[in-house]
Amino acid sequence: MQERVHNFSAGPAVLPVEVLLEIQKDLLNYKGKGMSVMEMSHRSKDYQAIFNETVESVKRVFGLGDNFEVLFLGGGATTQFLMSALNFCPPDKEANFINTGTWANNAYKEAKIIGKTANLAASSEDRNFSYIPKEFKLSDNPAYLHITSNNTIAGTQYHKYPELPQDIPLFCDMSSDIMSKPIDVNKFGLIYAGAQKNIGPAGATLVLIRKDMIERLQPDLPTMMSYQTHIKKGSMHNTPPTFIIYIIGLVMKWLENKGGLAAIEKHNQ
Ligand SMILES: Cc1ncc(COP(=O)(O)O)c(C=O)c1O
Fold this sequence. Notes:
two-stranded antiparallel ribbon, Aspartate Aminotransferase, domain 2, 31% helix, seven-stranded mixed beta sheet, 7 helices, binds pyridoxal-5'-phosphate, alpha/beta
């Protein structure tokens, strides 16, 4: 093999060579099925098995237990700026945001674009996003607080997540540090991340919804914008990014073989 370069791209980012080799080995004929995973019907038994194993391995690696709905959606993390506000901010409440950089600000702006009442609970814009604000001020009737755990462009990362009253959920765009270390996932009502940085190639977004949040989902949304649709149909209301989900499954297996997130955290440090 020609020597591979050091690839520091934030995303699409480097994938483990072991995973690339396994994809290569199974590309033309996946485990004797006579076709590539790319060519399989998403409704077939063979593909459903791949999908289910990917969901289960995400749960194992990230310590989700049975507390979370695990979805694989299209549209990137950027679509989650819109979907999180649409699905979880009712008309009589406010969506709250901490602005720690470009992506956090994009989530805040998107909530406003779709007509939600959006409150900036804190911002580090005064010093060019060079820090994570310690204090924040929620609105009077907050639906949730949204943060960006790692600010890919500003280079700042939460090491301690905000503490909230029990009935106010914490939402997090974890696109650039998901599964880089073990975390207490139960602190979060909603976690989402584009796959292309830490968990696979571009084309799928991992969305984790804590099950007690389901009763808060807003009704009567356009079909593809509603988390309810994707929960009910197990991410298969329409054709999901099948090949990407398969590769995420391989990355999860690789993470488990490496010793899980505790080992990966050490390695990262
Ligand atoms: C923290 C964060 N959120 C969101 C995005 C946008 O993700 P996507 O391109 O999947 O929409 C990025 C992209 O780099 C990011 O770093």
